[in-house]
Amino acid sequence: MDSTLGTLPPAPVAIVGGGPVGLSLALGLARQGMRSILLERKAATSDRSKAPAIHLRSREIFRQWDTEQPLLDAGVLVRSLPLYRAATGRRPLLSFEFSELETEADRPGILFLEQGRTERVLLEAVRETGLCDLRFDSEVVRLVPGDGGVRLTVREEGAQRVLDAEFAVGCDGGGSFVRKALGLPFEGVTLPVRATLADIHVTDGRDSLPWPRTSNDRSTITSTQRLAPRHWRIVRLEADDPRQDGDVSEEEVHRSAAESWERGQRRCCGRAGSGSSGARVRASVSAACCSPETPRTSSRRPWARA
To answer: What is the pLDDT of residues 258-275, one digit of tens each?
Structure first.
């Protein structure tokens, strides 16, 4: 049972959520000389790839905060992005040429970097400012707005503590506790589509194939992109009942890889599910893929649109 032990020091800004948004807010405030406290219910930053792309405008902001270069060093900056059809191999369907923006922006392109690594870079930058009280394993369980600010109840190590802040900012994702506590709606519809998201470790010649690659038929679209050497992301959208959920077999992930890499040439990927295929499933969940170091079970979830 939780017990109340006391209070946390008051803060100008309480940030609920320690993902890229919360860490970026903490860093931006610190760059303006503003102190904050960041509360994250998990024990550490994510070890998953999740959203693996950082776009130009975000990089421009990170540049102002002296954080862009560490991110560039950790990731892969893509300045030309041709899209390939798996069935035709190395002939691109179309190409996005970010170099067209050279006169308007510095180093235009998309930076591919696993979200877990992005979070670690931002976390280190926030720590170096000395202006944010970073508290992991700290779950906000109550939030009450008042005339002079907001009062939060925080659960830490089985005890509850009270925190008063002038502002509280919800950076805690789609299932935001802050949004629910304030009674704010999150309206939308669920599309009749199921999405499979998988990270796989590729150890054969397919790691050198051009990317991103795509294949489709009447009911399915499958695409792959290379996040890092030997680390690929598979995204598969299929028309299906979105209310169904469950695990995706390793065989199905191999089948998706075969469709997107060399459609019609299954021999390139070996027997589905075989250890000799050169592609090992390392991670897969619908909205939060883990890093290739940690095996995970594949899963399939409804595709929602806000």
So the answer is: 776 654 333 233 222 233
Instruction: Tell me, yes or no, if the pTM score tops 0.85.
Output: no
What's the CATH class of domain 189-305?
alpha beta
Asked whether the beta carbons of 259 and 278 are under 8 A apart, the reply is no
The dihedral region occupied by 50, where left means phi > 0, alpha psi between -120 and 50, and beta the remainder, is left
> pLDDT tens, 46-83?
998 999 999 999 999 999 999 999 999 999 999 999 99
3-class SS letters over 227-269 = EECCEEEEEEEEECCCCCCEEECHHHHHHHHHHHHHCCCHHHC
Is 209 strand, coil or helix?
coil
Other residues' Cβ atoms within 10 Å of the Cβ of residue 179: 16
Does domain 3-48+116-181 bear CATH number 3.40.50.300? Answer: no
Is the separation of the CB atoms in 49 and 114 below 8 Å? yes
d(CA 278, CA 284): 17
Q: Which of 73, 92, 90, 72 has the alpha carbon at shortest distance from 82?
A: 92
